[in-house]
Amino acid sequence: MAYPASTPARPDNARPHAPAQTRPQKLQSADAPTVVFISSAGHSGSTLLDMMIGNLSYAESLGELMVMPGEIALGSPCTCGASLLECPLWSRVLARWSQRHGRPPGDIRLGWMAHSQHASRAFRLARAASHGWRWLQLRAGVPALGLAEPVYRRGLEQTLELYDDVAECSGKRVLVNSSKPYLVAVDHARLLGARCRVINLVRDGRAVYASFLRHGFAPRAALHAWQHHYDRALPLFERYVGPGQLLTVRYEDLVTRPQETMSRVCGFLGEPFEPSALEFSAPHHNVNGNDIRFRPRHELRLDERWRRELSASQLEFFMQHAGRTMLRMGYGADVTPPAAPRAA
């Protein structure tokens, strides 16, 4: 029997940090799972952190959940090696969704990142407008989800609904979503309240800048990918995410002091640390993410290729424009504080 689609969450005018009133049934119950949302710029280690939390016996790595529709369409494999429609976890989760909505798994929509691998220019512009509108709403102190653009709103509602199914099928009490967008992180914290934990994952911007350049991005686009995320995310986190909901983790600490860092993460979740966090022996079911998820062995090693790859002029360009953000985040103490950005 097919069930009707979920009712859109009604607008809420709750003050910051207060959970909205409309939430999936499981996420309102006493045994509801904790949802961990990892927010970061790209190329910052989110897949690694996701999997390390997923190594814990009580946690399930979900990966970049927002891109699941595109991954289904492309036939991309889950981290376990099977396609998402044949994966031992996701096949059951998606079957439950299909039965409830009376539609095939390929119809699931989790936001504007659906099918983004082959997105047209028009799609990218529409997505940017949707996210820009949501950012303006949050920045203006008008967070009611009912005012958000419909694709964004429905995607968030279906994502929260999907957590119900994952919790039932996996039996895990901690679910990890490493989709990254800061807007979605803020709305997770608002809608789930104490059931949500946001991890603000940060990495030296010069390393991220070099990585984007390595992947063919133009210098300004590579700069923007790191600076834009944190310049917009940090004020919203301060305003909308409660102190007990937010933890900042440095990539550099994760790979150089993994036990100490993961112990801190587990404490933040209110859960015990387990040595398995560092072992990568458990099967994972991440959707998308860095290709390290397919490696049989994981060596934790600090990646500082930027030190040899970036020229003096590239470093000057980056620090001239993003130096203040770097210093605000505790990086770049080895450089002179930048002057006002020069015209291109």
UniProtKB/TrEMBL annotation:
Respond yes or no to whether keyword Ribosomal protein is given for this record: no
According to its UniProt entry, the protein's GO biological process terms are: N-acetylglucosamine metabolic process; sulfur compound metabolic process
| One Pfam family hit | Sulfotransfer_3
Q: Which PANTHER family match?
A: CARBOHYDRATE SULFOTRANSFERASE (PTHR10704), LD35051P-RELATED (PTHR10704:SF44)
GO terms, molecular function: N-acetylglucosamine 6-O-sulfotransferase activity
Q: Which UniProt keywords apply?
A: Transferase
Stretches that traverse the bilayer: none
Q: What is this protein called?
A: Sulfotransferase family protein
What does UniProt list as this organism's lineage? Bacteria, Pseudomonadati, Pseudomonadota, Betaproteobacteria, Burkholderiales
